[in-house]
Amino acid sequence: MTPRRRNLSRTAFIVFSSALALAVYVQAQEPTPNDWLNKMARAVQTTNYEGTVIRVSEDKYEALKVVRVVADGVVREKIVTQEGNGLEIIRNGSEVHCILPDKKSVLVDAWNEQSSLFSTLPSSDIGLGSQYDVLFDGKERIAGRKTVILAVRPHDEFRFGHRVWLDVKTGFPLKTMLMGNDGIAIEQVKFADIALDKEIHASALQPTNSTDGFRWITEPSRKVARAVEAGWNSDGLPPGFQVLSSHAEELPGSDTTVTHILLSDGLANVSVFVQPSTSEQAVDRSQVGASNSFSYAIDGHVVTAIGDVPAATVERIARSMQPR
């Protein structure tokens, strides 16, 4: 080989090696689905926003005006329905006011630590038993903003799937879908318009109408005892579900103590309530949107399982509960 060809070969090898190294480096720097889930979690906790949300469930459409501000770790939020009775939900930290203009009433309750808009959102530690796959599912514009779509796909029929549209710039979820086992959306939440991280005046978080002369009703708090052993076995749970906690709770206005057992597969949560009963009621099933419940009587108790999971899941969990 002549010196000139040898130099050309060496140059080509260096160029090829550099290009390959650059490609590997770029690929390594691209966010993974888990990176996006972490970014989403931070955005949901810290982002101020104002916009219009369309929520669809069971072919029912609901338009909501939403304002949310986070300052010094305290969340303030206002949600106003655009149809019907004009319900307003105003949250200030741990206290929630539900304003019912048509009834001239305000219900005061404690925040239940659940999102006002979204069903349970996936996180980067999804799946106690690796019951889901998380992958990219395309790109789309939502509310005039570029988004990346993540699909959360379950491995079996005992849990629902999710699709989440995340704002490319902030990671904020601009659209979510809860997917049935047939691939059809059960619930959908979508921003029609949104302003992210804008300065929001305090007046935007005040009630739309005056509440002078309204009747104020404070909901009784549920007394929660210390964590207890459930006294119930749960053999035969659907794959991946585990017991997270068990508490004894006193129902408001009653001396009845209910055992509340919380189960999770890392994304979907199911609550099981066990309470004494002399009733020999038959099996009871119900469904509201994505939420299914199943109750039945056993050994002087009524066991009820409820959660945003398929009907077969709550039934299997409820029937798996047996007294020790």
Can you give keywords for this protein?
324 residues, alpha+beta, outer membrane lipoprotein receptor (LolB), chain A, Phosphorylase Kinase, domain 1, 12-stranded mixed beta sheet, 7-stranded antiparallel beta sheet, 3 helices
Shape: globular
Helix content: 10-25%
Strand content: over 45%
**Can you tell me the CATH architecture of the largest domain?**
Clam
Put the structure in a nutshell.
The protein is α+β, with helices and mostly antiparallel strands and about 325 residues long.
Describe the fold and architecture.
The chain has 324 residues and is an alpha+beta fold. The chain folds into two domains: 33-217, outer membrane lipoprotein receptor (LolB), chain A; 223-323, 2-Layer Sandwich (Phosphorylase Kinase, domain 1), CATH 3.30.200.100. It is built from three helices and 21 strands. Strands 7-8-9-10-11-1-2-3-4-5-6-12 form a twelve-stranded mixed sheet. Strands 13-15-16-17-20-19-18 form a seven-stranded antiparallel sheet, covered by helices on one side. It has a two-stranded antiparallel ribbon with strand order 14-21. The longest helix is centred in the N-terminal third of the chain and has 27 residues, at 3-29.
